[in-house]
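Anyone up for a design puzzle?
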C-alpha cells in the first residue's frame, strides 16, 4: 500500500553543531561528531492527506496445537461454528493470536510479501525474547542467589500460542541473558493443558516457592506448587512439582475456568506465620460481569483457606487475569518495597488486573485494610479496570517483583505481536518482553505510578548524538542526522512557545489520542514530537508526540500519544493511535524518553507517568531507520530544549552451556 502523503522536502536552512561520542558520560560539547540538518517545511495538507487509519483487525484462528485430544476439541468446535474460532477460549483462556489479519486458518495465504531481510530485521537487539517460537506472560520473576530469573509462558513447538511450558532465562543485570532449558512442562494431569502463569515467593530463609495455575483441561484451572529441585543451584535449572498438587481447586462460587494466575504471597499482617496470596476471577452473576481478586491464606503453601469476601471487585470489567498486588512508598523514602511491607504511614498498595476483555493492564493506588480483607482505591472513579493503565499501547499480563538486590520494584510486561500470525510463523517467533521498568509512586502528583527503564539499560548506550536547542517551526519537520536509528535511546525535553500557549484560548477541547488524526492532525498547540523508524521520504514513520488542548474549564491538558498508523506499508498489521492525558505540573517542561529496538518502540513521558509501547513492522524504513523532529501545530513554535540520542549496543544473549555461564557471570 503506497502512502498517500505528498509533501515537498524544502530545506530552508542548514546548521552544524558539534556533539560528543563514545563515552556517554562526556558532556555534549566534548566530542567531534558533526551534525547537519535541514529544516523541512511542510504544508498543513502534508500530514493530513495521509491514508486512513487501519483499525484493529481481530484475527480468529485455530493454529498448531500438538495434543491430539485438544485438536479434537477444536475440530468439534469448528464444525459447530463455520466461522473461524480462536484457539484461546477453546482451551480455557483468551485469544492469543497476534491481531494481524492474515491468519493460518485462512490457509496462510495473503498478507504482505515479507522478505527474509525484513523479518530478520524485526528481531530486537536489547529486548528479552526467546531464541525462537511463541512467548507470552512473564512468570515468577525473582532475584535468587545473585541471578535475576525470568520465566515465561512458552510454546517450544511453534510460533503460535499453545502447549504452554515455562521458558526460563537468567541474568546478572536484567539485560544480558542466559537462555536456560524450559523449567516446567505439562507432564501431569493437573497441568496437561498447560503450565500457566504463576509467581515466586522468597521465604524468610531465602527459600523459593512457585505457585502457578495448572490448566487441567480446557474447563478446569487449579493452583499448583513447584520448588527448586536443588536450592543450592543459583541457576534453578530443575523444578519439582509438589506431590500434593493441585493444592487449590476453584471455590464453588466461581466457574472452574475463571480461576488463575496466583500472585506473589505476602506475610499476613495479623498472623506473621501465615501468607496471603490473591487469585483473579470473574463474577458473571446477574449482569455484573465483575472482575474479582480473591485472597487465600496459607501456612505451608499446600493447604489454603479462602478469606471471606474479596480483596476487590469491579463490575463490568470481566475476567481479571494476572492480578498483581504490592506496596509502594508514598513519601518517596524508598524506591521499592518488599511485597510483605505493611500498609500504614507512608505505604499504600497498588492493585493491578489484566483485563481479558480488552487486553490492557489497569491499576489503581489505594489503602489495604488487611484485617477486613479489603482494598479501597483512593479515587473510586479511577478504579481498577476503568482508570489508569501501566501502558497505553501493546502491553499485557505484566508482573512485578521486589528486587532485594537493588531495593527496587521491577515490572515486566508481555508485548505481543501486531503483525499476522502467518508472518509470525514465517519469522519463527512471536512476542517480546518489555524493557524491565522500575515502578514507584509519583510523589509530585500523588496520584499515579511512574515507570522507568531499569538503570542497567543505560549501560548499553554507545555513541551519543546531541541535537539540543533545535527549534521546530509550526508545520515543519527536522531530520536528525545519524548513521542508523534502529536501536536507539532518545531523551528529549520540549518547550512550547509561551506566547502561542497564552493566545491559544481556542485550543481544542476534548482531544483524544485514540480518535484523533494522530500525528497528521493539526491543532493550535500540537501535535509535536519525534518520528522514529522512518524512511528518508517519510512514507513510513511512527510518531511519539504531545498534543496540548484545553479542558472544558479552560485549563491546559497535555496528551501523550503514539501514532502507528503510518508505521508500515503492510496492511496486515494492526496500526492505531494510542495514548492518554499525562499530568504536567507547573514549571515542568514536556519530556519524553523513547527506546527504539527494531520492531518495538517504548516511550515514557514526564519521567514515566505515562508509557506507551508499539510494535511496528516497516517495509521501507527497515535497515535504514531515521529519526525526525516534527511540529504539526498551526501556531506554536516548539524548541527541543535538550535532545540526545544514543545508539544502543545489542545484548548478544547466550544459550546455556558452561562457558556461557562463565561469560554471563562476569
Ligand atoms: N496467559 C496464561 C494464563 C493467563 C493468560 C496462559 C494471560 O494463565 O491468564 O498462557 O495472558
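Challenge accepted. My sequence:
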Amino acid at each position: 500500500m503506497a502512502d498517500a502523503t505528498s509533501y515537498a522536502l524544502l530545506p530552508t536552512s542548514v546548521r552544524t553543531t558539534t556533539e560528543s561520542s563514545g563515552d556517554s558520560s562526556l558532556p555534549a560539547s566534548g566530542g567531534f561528531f558533526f551534525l547537519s540538518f535541514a529544516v523541512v517545511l511542510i504544508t498543513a495538507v502534508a500530514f493530513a492527506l495521509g491514508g486512513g487509519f487501519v483499525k484493529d483487525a481481530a484475527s480468529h484462528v485455530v493454529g498448531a496445537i500438538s495434543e491430539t485430544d485438544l485438536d479434537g476439541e477444536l475440530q468439534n468446535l469448528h464444525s459447530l461454528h463455520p466461522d473461524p474460532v480462536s484457539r484461546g477460549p477453546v482451551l480455557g483462556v483468551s485469544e492469543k493470536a497476534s491481531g494481524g489479519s492474515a491468519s493460518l486458518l485462512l490457509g496462510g495465504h495473503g498478507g504482505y510479501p515479507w522478505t527474509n531481510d525484513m523479518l530478520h530485521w524485526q528481531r530486537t537487539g536489547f529486548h528479552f525474547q526467546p531464541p525462537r517460537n511463541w512467548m507470552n506472560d512473564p512468570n515468577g520473576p525473582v532475584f535468587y542467589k545473585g541471578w535475576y530469573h525470568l520465566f515465561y509462558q512458552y510454546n517450544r513447538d511453534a510460533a503460535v500460542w499453545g502447549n504452554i511450558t515455562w521458558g526460563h532465562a537468567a541474568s546478572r543485570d536484567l539485560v544480558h541473558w542466559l537462555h536456560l532449558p524450559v523449567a516446567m512442562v505439562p507432564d501431569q494431569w493437573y497441568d496437561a493443558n498447560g503450565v500457566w502463569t504463576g509467581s515466586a515467593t522468597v521465604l524468610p530463609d531465602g527459600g523459593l516457592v512457585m505457585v502457578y495455575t495448572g490448566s487441567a483441561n480446557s474447563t478446569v484451572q487449579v493452583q499448583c506448587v513447584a520448588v527448586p529441585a536443588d536450592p543450592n543451584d543459583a541457576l534453578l535449572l530443575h523444578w519439582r512439582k509438589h506431590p500434593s498438587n493441585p493444592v487449590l481447586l476453584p471455590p464453588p462460587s466461581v466457574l472452574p475456568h475463571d480461576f488463575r494466575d496466583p500472585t506473589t504471597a505476602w506475610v499476613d499482617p495479623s498472623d506473621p506465620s501465615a501468607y496471603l496470596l490473591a487469585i483473579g476471577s470473574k463474577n458473571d452473576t446477574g449482569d455484573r460481569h465483575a472482575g474479582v481478586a480473591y485472597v487465600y491464606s496459607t501456612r505451608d503453601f499446600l493447604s489454603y483457606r479462602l478469606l471471606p469476601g474479596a480483596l476487590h471487585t469491579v463490575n463490568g470489567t470481566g475476567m481479571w487475569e494476572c492480578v498483581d498486588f504490592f506496596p509502594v512508598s508514598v513519601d518517596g523514602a524508598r524506591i521499592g518495597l518488599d511485597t510483605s511491607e505493611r500498609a500504614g504511614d507512608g505505604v499504600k498498595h497498588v492493585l493491578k488486573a489484566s483485563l481479558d476483555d480488552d487486553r490492557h493492564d489497569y491499576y489503581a493506588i489505594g489503602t489495604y485494610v488487611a484485617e477486613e480483607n479489603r482494598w479501597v482505591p483512593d479515587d473510586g472513579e479511577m478504579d481498577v479496570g476503568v482508570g489508569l493503565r501501566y501502558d497505553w499501547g501493546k502491553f499485557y499480563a505484566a508482573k512485578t517483583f521486589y528486587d532485594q538486590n537493588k531495593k527496587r520494584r521491577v515490572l515486566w510486561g508481555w508485548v505481543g505481536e501486531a503483525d499476522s500470525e502467518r508472518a509470525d510463523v514465517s519469522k519463527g517467533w512471536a512476542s517480546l518482553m518489555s524493557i524491565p521498568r522500575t515502578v514507584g509512586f509519583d510523589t509530585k502528583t500523588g496520584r499515579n505510578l511512574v515507570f522507568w527503564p531499569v538503570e542497567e539499560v543505560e549501560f548499553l548506550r554507545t555513541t551519543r548524538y546531541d541535537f539540543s536547542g533545535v527549534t521546530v517551526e509550526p508545520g515543519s519537520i527536522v531530520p536528525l542526522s545519524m548513521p542508523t536509528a534502529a536501536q536507539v535511546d532518545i531523551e528529549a525535553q520540549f518547550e512550547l512557545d509561551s506566547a502561542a500557549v497564552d493566545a491559544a484560548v481556542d485550543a481544542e477541547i476534548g482531544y483524544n489520542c485514540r480518535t484523533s488524526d494522530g500525528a497528521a492532525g493539526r491543532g493550535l498547540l500540537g501535535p509535536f514530537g519525534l518520528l522514529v523508524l522512518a524512511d528518508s521520504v517519510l512514507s513510513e514513520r511512527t510518531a511519539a508526540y504531545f498534543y496540548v488542548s484545553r479542558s472544558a474549564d479552560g485549563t491546559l491538558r497535555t496528551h501523550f500519544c503514539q501514532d502507528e498508523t503510518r508505521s508500515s506499508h503492510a496492511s496486515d498489521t494492526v496500526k492505531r493511535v494510542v495514548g492518554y492525558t499525562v499530568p504536567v505540573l507547573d514549571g515542568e517542561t514536556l519530556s519524553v524518553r523513547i527506546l527504539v529496538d527494531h520492531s518495538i518502540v517504548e516511550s515514557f513521558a514526564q519521567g514515566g507517568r505515562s508509557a506507551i509501547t508499539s510494535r511496528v513492522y516497516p517495509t521501507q524504513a527497515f535497515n535504514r531507520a531515521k529519526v525526525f523532529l516534527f511540529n504539526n501545530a498551526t501556531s506554536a513554535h516548539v524548541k527541543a530544549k535538550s535532545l540526545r540520542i544514543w545508539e544502543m549496543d545489542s545484548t548478544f544473549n547466550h544459550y546455556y552451556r558452561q562457558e556461557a555461564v562463565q561469560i554471563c557471570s562476569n
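A detail worth pointing out: The chain has two domains: 90-121+135-419+436-452, 459-648.
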